[in-house]
Amino acid sequence: xATREELIExxxxxxxxxxPEDLFEGAPEVTVDREEITVIGRIPEPAYAEGASEAEKxxxxxxxxxxxxxxxRDARMAVAxxxxxxxxxxxxxxxxxxxxxxxxxHLSVPVMTRLKQPERALLDTLVxxxxxxxxxxxxxxxxxxxxxxxxxxVGELRDAMRKVEEVREAGPDREGGERGDGGDSGxxxxx
Length: 191
Hints:
191 residues, alpha+beta
């Protein structure tokens, strides 16, 4: 059974090899979870008019992203069909251009949770305060807030989980550690 890291590496390698060479500048960022593969590539930043304001530059990048999305739709859809068949997950696309990033499509997956009354009250406060339109949106807002303010800690936690998975994969039952006699040696050394 492949580890999560191996799955991500294989998926990233497959996309890097399968995508048309001129689609993105360099290899794409590939993120994988249980339901979705997200592919984000960098596209060339457009040339700006001399003395262009920040608003004009932002509009130029926005136009470049829209043009790229429309021009590459058929090619991206063909790759997505192949990937969805191979990996059993939906494929979402996005780009980075200059300092802007856009996701074209991505899944919104329901996640079941049980909350006690004080936790529900917090979500209701966010809804009543106009921060969110629903409890579901309020919960998503909370997750984004945690990600923003605890990003380094979450990154360290993910690194630690990868290390645990590596140690687990290298365990005694993985590489010739299995015994064919159905038991251990009882602590005795064979002569």
